[in-house]
Amino acid sequence: MELGEAFRRIGAGEARMSLQVLSILHDSVVDGEGLRTVVFFSGCPHQCPGCHNPESWNIRNGTKMTVDEVAVEILSNPLTDVTLSGGEPFMQAKEVKQLARKLKEAGRHIWSYTGYTVEHLLQRGTADQRELLQYVDVLVDGPFLMERRRPGLRFCGSDNQRIWRMICGQPDGLIFP
Fold first, then answer.
1. pLDDT digits (tens, 9 = 90+) for 29-68
2. Exposure of 173 by Cβ count < 10 A (0-12 exposed, 13-18 middle, 19+ buried)?
3. Residue 17 dihedral angles phi and psi, to the nearest 5°
4. DSSP-based three-state secondary structure for 138
């Protein structure tokens, strides 16, 4: 689907929703399988000791960007899929779900990191958090735990974190169990 078509499908009000973005990194090979554009969102309620990105904890850090601005930046690179990271992407779920919808409509494969567990998001998460899960293909869940840190793990930092294949917002088995 063309970028313009993906944007026309979402109303103008949703396009003006703003996200607090710490940074956007193109061409990552460590934040999911394949070549990826990674969006690091600002704000994190978990504040895990030993976090690799503590500057992301404060919601005021980074830049305020509209959903469209972030989508244009991501989709400017036709070779990459997308990883939502942070901070905590599910902290801004109302806005991030709009971005994820645009990215899916443009044909992008989406990984998301979260300090929540998938069970928490499904059972106690907000409606926006559950809707965001609908657009995620792979979910890396669980807080980083310094005492369970294991260098060399694929795509996660501690061995309590799990990598889920997601289908229609539901976990469909572990990847790299």
1. 999 999 999 999 999 999 988 888 899 899 999 999 999 9
2. exposed
3. -60, 140
4. strand
Nearest to 46 by CA among 158, 123, 138, 130: 158
Distance CA 136, CA 143 (A): 18
Judge contact between 115 and 142, C-beta under 8 A. Answer: yes
Number of neighbours of residue 162 by Cβ within 10 angstroms: 17
DSSP 15-45: HT-EEEEEEEEEEESSSSSSSEEEEEES--S
Q: Which residues contact 86 (CB under 8 A, 6 or more apart)?
A: 22, 40, 41, 42, 43, 44, 53, 56, 113
The distance of Cα 130 from the centroid of its chain, to the nearest Å, equals 13
User: Taking the model in full, what pTM does it have?
Assistant: 0.90
Residue 42 contacts residue 81 (beta carbons within 8 Å) = no
Per-residue CA distances from 93 to 100, 160, 166 (Å): 10, 23, 17
Sheet holding 36-41, edge to edge: 63-66, 18-28, 36-41, 81-85, 110-113, 138-141, 162-167, 170-174
* Length of the chain as a residue count: 177
Question: What CA–CA distance (Å, rounded) separates 24 from 43?
Answer: 15
